[in-house]
Amino acid sequence: MVTPAARRNAVAHAVEVHGLSERRACAIISADRSSVRYRSVRPDDAALRARLHELADQRRRFGYRRLHVLLRQEGHAVNRKKTQRLYREEGLAVRRRKSRRRIAVARTPIPLPDGPNSRWSVDFVHDQLACGRRFRVLNIIDDVTKECLAAVVDTSLSGKRVVREMTALIERRGKPGVIVSDNGTEFTSTAVLKFTQEQKLDWRYIAPGKPTQNAFAESFQGRMRDECLNEHLFFSIRHARAIIAGWVHDYNTARPHSSLGYQTPAAYAEALRPQRPSTLRHGESSAPMAVAYGAGARNFHPAIPVATG
User: Fold this and answer.
1) What confidence score (pLDDT) does residue 224 get?
2) Which of 169, 152, 164, 173 lies closest to 191 in space, CA to CA?
């Protein structure tokens, strides 16, 4: 009996069952009478708990930190530790999915981005409709602002389709300094290789069997699968496009991102300051003039070989 609550319960039991006085019961248990008589004045926070439940239902894969940011944005005067306590008391903890252990290997630096458009990551994620038909999503992410620049949903995405979507994106946003992808057949197709040569793009491929070298895309797709794909049942490709487009808009404009200081990617990109033309720290870039400074980059990334041919 080390907690005040346990001591109060023991004193109450001695008084009610054994007929002892409160003073005698406190002396036997070595409890302070003021502690036994204390009654909590803490408010029940019913409105705050209810709102926390609503946010947790809407964002079922959010932890207490992101829910705390959303509560503060709504005007609730609550600190992080109180949010964590309420989150734990209400049983809202998100169950973590276990992953198999991997052997740690030595890593060498890769070219680091230092501004928007200095590096894009590209990759596919797969899912299926309610009827069992599979579809794919082509994701393009800016590694600095963490924005999802495009999420193309279709049942078939060939190399020519990748070129068409990439061309449209470059026309809207400008040419990136580096594009990072895996060695999938779509990215190593003749159409993509011809496109990179004509546009003079620096397209780099990760080492085979090393998805962690494309960490920005893998991290984004983990969030997409956890918060969107696993949360919805898609009845048609049109339905999947609408749901995924809505989630991407929410990801860019409303979802707090921990690596950006819990800002949204759109807000972070808007807050960046103009700068001179951007180049990569370890190698030259063909990117046009960058529009902003980038976030501080880590230096724990493996080397990515440059595509040949």
Assistant:
1) 94
2) 164
In contact, 220 and 139? CB cutoff 8 Å: yes
Phi, psi of 136 (to 5 degrees): -130, 160
pLDDT in tens, 215-265: 899 999 999 999 999 999 999 999 999 999 999 999 999 999 988 889 999
CB 292 within 8 A of CB 98: no
115 burial class (0-12, 13-18, 19+ CB within 10 angstroms)?
Answer: buried
How far is it, in rounded angstroms, from Cα 290 to Cα 285? 11
Could you identify the residue written with the tokens 């470059």? 170
| E strand or H helix at 5 | helix 4-18
What's the pLDDT band for 32 if we cut at 50, 70, 90?
confident
Element (H, E) at 120: strand 119-128
Question: What gap in Å lies between CA 169 and CA 173, rounded to an integer?
Answer: 6
H or E, element range at 49:
helix 46-58
Query: How do residues 169-224 score in pLDDT, each as one tens digit?
Result: 999 989 998 899 998 899 988 899 999 989 999 898 888 888 888 889 999 999 99
Residue 267 has pLDDT above 80, yes or no: yes
Cα separation values, 105 from 111, 168, 205, 231, 233, Å: 19, 38, 19, 34, 38
Task: Give the neighbor-by-neighbor strand order of the sheet with 178-181.
Answer: 148-154, 134-142, 119-128, 178-181, 203-205
What pairs with residue 166 in β-bridges?
A: none
Query: In the chain, what is the straight-line distance between the N-terminal and C-terminal CA atoms, in Å?
Result: 74
Confidence of residue 276 (pLDDT cuts 50, 70, 90): very low
149: closest CA among 31, 49, 61, 249?
A: 249
**Please, which residues bridge with residue 140 across strands?**
122, 150
182 vs 185: CA distance, rounded Å: 9
The pTM is what? 0.66
